[in-house]
Amino acid sequence: MSLLDVQRLTKTFGGLTAVNDVTFQVPERGIISVIGPNGAGKTTFFNLITGIYAPDAGSITLAGQNLVGLRPDQVVAAGISRTFQNIRLFPSMTAEENIMLGRGVRLKGGFWDAVLRTGKFRRDEEEANNTARLMLDFVGLSKWRGELSTNLPYGDQRRLEIARALATTPKLILLDEPAAGMNPRETEDLKALIRAIRDELGVTVVLIEHDMRLVMTLSENITVLNYGSKLSEGLPHQVRNDPAVMEAYLGRGAAAGEHGKEARL
């Protein structure tokens, strides 16, 4: 049974169809990649899943729960968290405070508990603090606990954003170009972190990524979007050798291969 089940999802903006009749299924505890050329509809696809956009047609369910019509915070409460192409940390907050903020969706206290600093508020604050410390340790950022997030190195800011998303205790995490701007060493560390998210935390992972070395060595299955439609889907070696995928990335002439040689991603 699929953890995430997307059926015939469609979204148009004026005369542009950004996502066109896409069906997409993610098994529990899988690591799945969504790839495609720039403008293929990948981030729009994530935005539909997470409630930022409402689909024009199609269905989205997580563990059997319908997500269509839910607000982004309700999608998070249902069990999906995400990161973004551009880092969206709160620069005036410490690393620990950023993660504590992410934990808020799971806390029980209300407005008046915070105003009156009730016992429930104090318990919530302690839980958020403990979660932040655990997540900082998990992603290897304990040393930055009290540092403003804006002062962290770029790669560590990426990891902090993942830690904040994990603080919501998701069933599924969506990572939008997590390796963007990283050097090779940081990318290798990211690969190990993504595997640990699945293997140690039991969280299913779907990532959008342009780093093909990362995609091909990490993914268990790959879906390729092009002009909003699903172009290909399968195991890494199947997608790598799909002529339609090579043409979308490299152009018809390059995909055919110079002097009869096979072009590869």
Automatic annotation (TrEMBL):
The keyword Ribonucleoprotein does not apply. It comes from the Bacteria. Residues 4-252 form the ABC transporter domain. InterPro entries: AAA+_ATPase, ABC_AA/LPS_Transport, ABC_transporter-like_ATP-bd, BCA_ABC_TP_C, P-loop_NTPase. Keywords: ATP-binding, Nucleotide-binding, Transport. One of its GO terms (molecular function) is L-valine transmembrane transporter activity. One of its GO terms (biological process) is L-isoleucine import across plasma membrane. GO terms for cellular component: plasma membrane. PANTHER family: AMINO ACID ABC TRANSPORTER ATP-BINDING PROTEIN (PTHR45772:SF7), CONSERVED COMPONENT OF ABC TRANSPORTER FOR NATURAL AMINO ACIDS-RELATED (PTHR45772). This is Amino acid/amide ABC transporter ATP-binding protein 1, HAAT family (TC 3.A.1.4.-).
